[in-house]
Automatic annotation (TrEMBL):
Keyword Metal-binding: no
Domain of life the protein comes from: Bacteria
Record key words, sorted: Oxidoreductase
Protein name: Uncharacterized protein
Stated family: Belongs to the short-chain dehydrogenases/reductases (SDR) family.
Keyword Transport carried by entry: no
Organism: Mycolicibacterium fortuitum
Amino acid sequence: MIEDLQSEGIDAHGVAADAHDEHVLSAAVTELADRFGRIDVLHHAVPGPLGRGFGPALDIPAGLMRTFLEARVVSALVASQASAPFLRRSKGALLFTSGTAGQVAHPQTGIVGVPQAALRMLVEHLRQEFSSDAVFVGLIPVDGVPAYRDPRADAERTDTGAGVPLGDRFTAADVAEAHFRMARARDREEWVVGEKERGLADTPFGSA
């Protein structure tokens, strides 16, 4: 992705960071802020090891639940704390990607749903605390499994539950477009993105 952006003349840079290491993650956010001089939008989308994310709640190992909570919730908190001073200066936006299992107890999704529900509450608190700073805080629960750009990679993915259909459907680009529009328009605090957003990435901004 970075190379694609650079090929279009966009100044793009990335830093790899372990979302489970708060010091490394915080340093990565600060490094990028220092490089570009500001943060306008911080987007957090760390779900945890989704290939192990489906099954009965009573069978969930405690350690695996901690892993998912660290990925989905603790890393979101760390990234928010690290970016806060920069977002306050830019009056920027914090966007979080999640899923609908945090609202509805879909069968076999307890291990992803509990952290999603916790993230929702964290987002509410961040929204309250940033309200006086004109920092926008948005949540995008994704309802379904968006398709990858590469059909072969999409067909071979291992991050879905058994029996989840992976045919023609909305795409990761549609989800990305929803994030862009939310950050620009700031007209809704939450946007459940799913099949109804199919083709959104191909629709001119302002017409949907």
